Amino acid sequence: MLTVNEIRTKYFEFFKARGHTVIPSASLVPLNDPTTLFTGSGMQPLITYLLGAPHPEGNRLVNSQKSFRAEDIEEVGDNRHTTFFEMLGNWSLGDYFKKEQLPWFFEFLTDEVGIDASRLYVTVFIGDEKNNVPRDTESADIWKELFAKKGIEAKVVEIGSEADGYRLGMQGGHIFYYDAKKNWWSRAGVPENMPAGEPGGPDSEVFYDFGTPHDPAFGAECHPNCDCGRFMEIGNSVFMQYIKTHSTGSGQAGFALLPKQNVDFGGGLERIAAAAQGDPDVFRTDVFWDVITLLEHFSGKQYDDSRYKRSFRIVADHMRAAVFMLGDGVRPSNTDRGYILRRLLRRASLHAQKIGISAEKADDSMLVRSATIILEKYDEAYPELAADEVYDMVADEVWKEEVQFGHALVKGMKEFEKTAAGGHISGEQAYVLFTTYGFPFEMTLEIAKERNIDVDEDGFKLEMKKHQELSRAGSEQKFKGGLADHSEKTTQLHTAHHLLLKALQMVLGPQVKQRGSNITSERLRIDFSYGAKMTKEQIAAVEKVVNEKIAEALPVMRSTLPRDEAEVLGAEHEFGAKYPDMVSVYSIGPRGGNEVKPQYERAFSIEFCGGPHVGNTSELGTFKVQKEEAVAAGIRRIKAVLV
C-alpha cells in the first residue's frame, strides 16, 4: 500500500519527467493576500501567474500545496472531511492544454498509483447556450479514448444539474456532462456572474467509485456528484480557456478565447491515497493511522467502535492541522488565525478526553506525542518542520494549550452548574458558555443529556451564525486592500514600502527585518523587528531618507534571478516564506547603467517581490509616517501615507 509520501514523490517525478519544475508550497499564512486568513487551495498563491504574469520558474510547474479550510472544522468526523490537506497541483501557463493534461493525470492514477481505471468516473462541462459558451466535447472525446485504451467502453451521459443527477442516475455511464455550477471555474462563479474581462473556463473532475451501496436518503438515484459516499472526487483539471468580452442588456454574455490558455490542476493527496487503497476512509491512510494507533493503545478504545470513531478522527485531523499552523508561525490566541488554532487544539483535547485520554504532565500528553508523530511523518517533505527547535516549540505550544484548556473547563463547569440550575439552557446561554468560558457546546449537550436538561440547539446555531457573520465582516474589513488591489495608489505605496524598509535599516540598524505588511490604497503598514519604541528623531530621519530617494527619481526595475544569487546580492525577503529556485526581484536605483548585476550591486533597495511597482520613485509624492507602535515583543509597526 502506497504511503502519502510515496504518492507525493511519484507525482513530482512524473511531472518533472514531463518538463515541470517543482516549486515549494506556499505558507498556510498567505503572503500579500489580505482576502483570507489561510491558504485554501493550490491555485491561491499562483493566481497572479494564472492571470498573465510570468513565473520565474517557467511555464510548467508542479507542487504540493499545504491548505487549510476553517469552514470544514464542524464537518470533521465523517470518513472524508479534513481541515488541513495537501493539494497536488500542476500548471501550464500558456503551454500545454487538454490533450496533454487529461492523459497525464489518467496515466498517473492508473499506471503510477495503480488505481483500477474501471473505478474512475469523470465529469465535463455541458455548455451554456444562454451565455454562448460551447459544451466541452474535446474533453469528453479525450476521456472516451483514454478509457478505450484500458478496454473500457465509456458511455457519455448528459446530466445537467446536480438535482437532475438524483433523478437520472448513472445510466451505465463513465463520462458525465454537468452544468456550469459543477463544471465551470472563474473567480466570479458561473458565466453570467462574470464581469467583462474576467477569465474562466470549463473543468473536468475525476471521481473514484468505492462501490458502496447508494443511500437513498440523499436522492432516488446515485451519480458521480452524489453525497452518499459511494464516489469521492480525487482531482480536477481547470482549463482557463475564455475571457468574457461583454454582457448584453438581455443578460447574455460574449466570450472569446484567451490568447494564452492555462491549465490549473488540483488533486487531494489524501483522497488519492484513499482511492489507491480502495477504502473510502481517509483516516486509514498512513498519515492519520499512526496517530490513531497511538490513541488506541493508550486509551484502550478501538477506532472501529462507533461510539469513539468520530473522536479519533477529530483528534488526528486537528493535531495535524495544528502542527502545520504552528510550523508556519501561527500561535494560539483569541483572534484571527490564532483563534482557529486554539479552537483546533481545544477540540482535540476535548475529544482525547472523550476516548479516555488525559495527562498530568507534558511527557504523558497524547496530543504532544501525536504532534511528534506528525512532525516525523512530514519533516522530509517539509524541511521547515525538521529542526529540533521546531519539535520543541510545537510540544511546548500544544502542552501549554492543553493545560489552559483544562483550567477553562474547570471555570466553565462552575458556570454550567449555575446555568443548568434553571432546568433549561437557551441558545444564548450555551453560546456564552462557549465563547466567554471556553466550554465546548458538545460538552454542554453531553452533560445536559445526562441530567435530562433541555438545550436549545437551534438557538445556539443561530448565535454562532451571527458571530461568524460578524467575524467574517471584521476579517474582510481588517484584511481588505493589500496587494490584492493593484490600483495606482496601492502600487505607489507598495514601492514606498520598499524604500521604508531600507530606510529603517539605515536608521535603526541592519538587524531590522520585515515581519509582516499590509498595503491598501489609503496607507501602507509594515511590521518589523526592533526592540524599542522609535524616537521622534529616528522617525524624522526615516522620513528624510525616503523622501530623498523619491526626489532622486530612481528607476524601479524587475528581474528574474536564481534565488541563491539574489540572496548573495542581499535581497530582502519575507521572514519564513518559501521561495522557488528562480525568483522575481525588484531593485530601486541607481540612475544610469544597463547591466543587471552592477545595477543590483549599486541599488538603494533590492527585494524578492512579484510587484506591482511604479517605474520611478518620482511618481510617489511626499512620504509621511502616521503612527509607530508596538504589536508584540520585539515587533514594531509603522503606518504611513503618501501625500
Topology overview:
Layout: H1 4-16, E1 21-22, H2 47-50, E2 60-68, E3 84-93, H3 98-112, E4 120-125, H4 137-149, E5 155-160, H5 162-168, E6 173-178, H6 180-183, E7 184-186, E8 199-209, E9 231-247, E10 253-268, H7 269-276, H8 286-299, H9 309-327, H10 336-354, H11 366-378, H12 388-420, E11 424-425, H13 427-435, H14 441-450, E12 454-455, H15 457-479, H16 488-508, E13 514-519, E14 524-529, H17 536-551, E15 556-562, H18 563-568, E16 582-588, H19 596-601, E17 605-608, E18 623-632, E19 635-642
Parallel strand pairs: 1-2, 4-6, 5-6, 11-12
Antiparallel strand pairs: 2-3, 3-10, 4-8, 7-8, 8-9, 9-10, 13-14, 14-19, 15-16, 16-17, 18-19
Helix pairs in contact: 3-4, 8-9, 8-11, 9-10, 9-11, 10-12, 11-12, 13-15, 16-17
Structure characterization notes:
The chain folds into four domains: 4-276, Bira Bifunctional Protein, Domain 2 (BirA Bifunctional Protein, domain 2), CATH 3.30.930; 302-416; 422-470, no CATH class; 483-642, Threonyl-trna Synthetase, Chain A, domain 2 (Threonyl-tRNA Synthetase, Chain A, domain 2, 2-Layer Sandwich), CATH 3.30.980. The strands form four sheets. Strands 1, 2, 3, 4, 5, 6, 7, 8, 9 and 10 form a ten-stranded mixed sheet that branches. It has a four-stranded antiparallel sheet with strand order 13-14-19-18, covered by helices on one side. It has 19 helices and 19 strands. It is globular. It has helices spanning 4-16, 47-50, 98-112, 137-149, 162-168, 180-183, 269-276, 286-299, 309-327, 336-354, 366-378, 388-420, 427-435, 441-450, 457-479, 488-508, 536-551, 563-568, 596-601, and strands at residues 21-22, 60-68, 84-93, 120-125, 155-160, 173-178, 184-186, 199-209, 231-247, 253-268, 424-425, 454-455, 514-519, 524-529, 556-562, 582-588, 605-608, 623-632, 635-642. The model is unreliable at 474-482 (pLDDT under 50). The protein is an alpha+beta fold.
